Amino acid sequence: MKIAFCIQEDKGKESILDSRFGRSPGFLIYNTEEDEAKYITNKQNLNAAQGAGVQSAQNIVNEKVDVLITRNCGPKSFSILLEAGVEVYLSKDSSVQIALDKFNKNELTKSGNSNVEGHW
Amino acid sequence: MLKVIGKMDIAIASGKGGTGKTTLSVSLTLSLQALTNKKVRLLDCDVEEPNSHLFLSVKSKTIEDGWVESCEFDAEKCTGCNKCVEACRFNAIAIVKKKPIFFSDLCHGCGGCVLACKFDVIKSVNRKIGKIVTKEGNNVILRYGVLNIGEIASPPLIKQVQISDPEIGLTIIDSPPGTSCSMVTSVEKADFVILIAESTAFGLNDLEIAVETVKGLHKSFGVVINRDGAGDDRVEQYCKKESIEILARIPDSLNVAKHYSNGKIAWGIDKEFTSNIDGLATKIIKRFSL
Amino acid sequence: MKELLVISGKGGTGKTSVTASFAALAKNAVFADCDVDAADLYLLFDIETIKKEEFYSGTEPAIIQDKCDQCSICYDLCKFDAIGKTLDSKGKVKFEVKPFSCEGCGVCIDNCPISAIKEMDRLCGHIYLSKTQYGTLSHAKLLPGGENSGKLVSAVRKQAHVFASEHGAEWLLIDGSPGIGCPVIASVTGVDRVLLVTEPTVSGIHDLERVFQLCKHFKVPIYVCVNKFDLNIKNTDWIKNYTIENNETWIGTIPYDNSVTDAQNLGIPVVNLPKSLAGESIKEMWAKIKTDTGEIK
User: Fold this and answer.
1) C38 and B16 in contact by Cβ < 8 A?
2) Comparing B10-19, B84-93, C127-136, which segment has the lowest mean pLDDT?
3) In this complex, do B22 and C203 lie within 8 Å of one another by their Cβ atoms?
4) What's domain B8-66+130-287's superfamily in CATH?
5) How many CB atoms sit inside 10 A of residue B3's CB?
């Protein structure tokens, strides 16, 4: 299973989670079977004039991610992830490791809807 | 540049709102109509907050749909090649499981995706984003746009407000405040721009930015000082230094403000105000041989 | 932290004078001037800029003149009339990008058969963080004709938000942009309260409804105050009743008072001007807001 996290900079599982999804500086994609973490940059979206969430969701989908763990997710991003079958879990934790531990213990809530308005 | 509005188009603009732009646009329209005895058109291009119609009693009314060019996808034909996603700089398209997901509110109608698609999936369509209202009476035509709540693209609607009978000799364009894309779209086709400002700290700061913008658009322009006497002489000094013509000074008047609060333009009611506006109108008529 | 956004339907209703006065009255506050089209708040403070950053948004094309063979495809395809066609002194056709008209869609770049147009990041303005005598201010200046103020608004707000969170500020006061378009949406989302500063004019009444709709859409409670209320008592009463009927909070009135203009030209918040009637009214409003928002953390 592949799990994606929105992070500020790549420090493996110690990476700090970013509060945004669309304009998150990058994503850490953790492969549970191989216990490997891969970083993909989201830099082009930091400067996007608009629709950063759409492009970020597209990036996540293209990486064939199964689960996204994020602090926030807007309506457009959510609809794309839903269509692609990516499950969205909300976490207010500080680091990837803490959020991952909680996810493994089934302590994170699966989101059935976007939790923030667009233009956030 | 190709002229598309009328024969002589004068835009009224200001760096910020609340400087008397609508008051000036409406009263100048009425004054020019009275002095030339010809048909005058007023285009209210402030589609986010159109106000001119509140001050003009013109009767007959037609309503058109206001639209923006957008696109439509034939999902059956889509191969998921991703070319449209790459072409769209506005991130309005995503491809999931080889099918497009389109967010129309992000679309600017540039047609980039239509050009990029090799499989004839995408076609251009019009999407409704508001309405255009035209009213006419007493030799005055008023045309304004109303943008739907939640829509973000004013320029397409502004351009539609400006598509109007090209045979009209004189058009006044009430442009939206600020110096962003909506203001630029509104004044771009004008032959002359009148910038209106109050002589205050905010007024001068905003005027300077508006001047830079109209200079960047290579427009000839002049300044009208509103509420003259309420502030100091900083706008006067600035115009002198920059060699900008001051077209008129409209004195500060509680009477004019009270009329405005009741939805009345003081032109034709307040003697001093009327003579100031008529003076400006006469200057315009002479300058452009109307 | 409490986030209060001050807006007006139309411009020039005294929104910035009110925000600056609240700034002078609030303890432990951070300010954001999100009215980037008319960024005037800083004119009422003594400021010392501590950070200046370039703000880029989207991209813009540049035609490489040496490479261009005047095929005219970009000119024909552009939906925004953003490619200018001129003749030089020798009568040769020249195509140029008109930056104020360009929306950055990239159609010219992608469809140039000989790749004679390059794509560059578009500089739209600058973002500043400045110290003032009342607290830290996040503000911006748009380049003339600069676009995407919605995104710039978010960036200004974000900078203020981050600074306020890091420094444990009690208040984040935001001077919002006029209108109901993208910049306003970008400033309304996520605030705790909106204060609408309006005037007792038919325009003010006309705009009221649209602002209410917008705030309802984003589920933000509204405070309403009327500036220059004595211009038209009947309209002031109308606005007051409308506010109460819509279950929003009526917060007070400010009289027509030239001391607001005087303070502005002196470069100070009007509450700092002795014996200002407008200043006294604003002080009363601020006291009400402080009490009313007591519960928000």
Assistant:
1) yes
2) B10-19
3) yes
4) P-loop containing nucleotide triphosphate hydrolases (3.40.50.300)
5) 11
